[in-house]
Amino acid sequence: MRVLETPRLVLRRFAAGDAAFILRLVNEPPRLRCIGERGVRTLEDGRGYALESGAAVIDWARESLGLNTLVAITTENNHRAEILLDRLGFEFGCNTRLDDVELRLFRHTEPEKRP
Q1: Long-range contacts of 8-13 (CB under 8 A, 24+ apart)
Q2: Residue 5: its pLDDT value, please?
Q3: Rounded CA separation 5/53 (Å)
Q4: How confident is the model at residue 89, as a pLDDT?
Q5: What does the alpha-carbon distance between residue 9 and residue 14 come to, in Å, rounded to a whole number?
Q6: Which residues pair with 98 in a beta bridge?
Q7: In this predicted model, what pLDDT tens digit does every residue of 3-61 receive, in sequence order?
Q8: Quick one: which of 115, 108, 103 has its CA closest to 84?
Q9: Which fold has domain 2-113?
Q10: Whose CA is closest to 90, among 103, 106, 74, 105?
Q11: Any idea where the domains of the chain sit in the sequence?
Q12: How far apart are the two ends of the chain, measured CA to CA in Å?
């Protein structure tokens, strides 16, 4: 089921047939270290897929779900993700720990609702 589309991307819900791929993806060492990018294009690739899909998800969350505030979480050394979040308009909130992993929390608030 398609959730949203951009001119270059189709984002859809996971399907049962995706299970084997997702299992391999989330257990690769780079991803385990810092939610890495293997097989996924990033902002630094110069292709802008991460920026494009992130902006589309923000718009969808606002328009379809009516959400005013969005939250993003990265591991502490995932600097590429932080650059992307900054470009998408997220602001750093705080550091926290979960299961001995240092995490950084960010939030995105609609401009007219920002404190």
Answers
A1: 8/49, 8/52, 9/49, 9/52, 9/53, 9/56, 11/53, 11/56, 11/57
A2: 83
A3: 9
A4: 94
A5: 15
A6: 101
A7: 788 887 777 777 778 777 766 666 666 555 555 444 444 434 446 778 888 898 899 89
A8: 108
A9: Aminopeptidase (3.40.630)
A10: 106
A11: 2-113
A12: 36
pLDDT, mean of residues 81-86: 92
For residue 46, what are its two tokens? Answer: 């110069």
Q: Which residue has the tokens 């293997």?
A: 38
- Separation of alpha carbons 85 and 73, rounded Å: 10
Question: Higher-confidence residue: 34 or 64?
Answer: 64
Q: Which two tokens stand for residue 67?
A: 């959400």
Query: In whole angstroms, how far apart are CA 34 and each of 5, 7, 74, 100, 109?
Result: 27, 29, 8, 14, 25
Does 78 or 87 have the greater pLDDT score? 87
> Would you state the torsion angle of the CA atoms of residues 87, 34, 32, 40, taken in this order, to the nearest 10 degrees?
40
